[in-house]
Structures are given as C-alpha cells and as structure tokens.
Give the backbone structure.
Amino acid sequence: MVLAAIWAWLKKYWTWLLFPVGILLFLIGRLTAKKPAALEVVSPELEGHEKVQSQISEKLKKDVAAVEREKAEKLAQIEEEHKETVQNLTDEQKKKVESLKEDPDKLAEYLLEVGKSVRSGP
C-alpha cells in the first residue's frame, strides 16, 4: 500500500525530483573530479639549460681545484722562503721572530729590516 502511494506520487511529480537529483550529481562530480596537472611552460631560450648548467658547474669545479692547487704551491713556496730567512737569522733574531708570529704585519716588517741589515752588512 505504501509502495503504491509512493509510486503514484513519483509518476505525478517526477519533475520535482529531477532538479535536486541533477544538482546533487553535478556537485558529486565536481568534488570527485581529478584536477589536471599544472603545465610548466618553458621558454625556448631556457630549453636544455640543465645541460649547460651542468657543464658550467663541472668547469667551475675544475677551475676551483686548479686555483686551490696553485694556492697550495704558492703557500709552500712562501713557507720555504720564510724558513730559509729564519735559518739565516741569529739566535736573538729567532727569538724575536717567535714572539712576533702572532702578528704577521709586525713579523713582515721585522724580517724586512733584518733582510736590509743582512744585505747591507752589519
């Protein structure tokens, strides 16, 4: 009896159900739809920049390594010259050099003075 009444109502007012069901289906479809992936647009000038960037990075690493080697060689040369200069000093001058090691500027000035006195004679 109840089913017959529901069926009679649906036959008479089916258009009233169509609109809310349509809206409900539309909302469910919008909420569950997959979102398209964002497209990344690259200008033609930048195409292949990873390759160029990696080449530049490799060149930079090689250049830095070469500069480091050159720096180490120059530092070794300077230290060798410094050792030779200190070996030529008297004991008193060696003590003075040891006390001045904390201040490179004063040490350089002192060694220049000692070098002048060594070259010109006592």
Residues 1-31 form one domain. The CA atoms of residues 74 and 80 lie 10 Å apart.
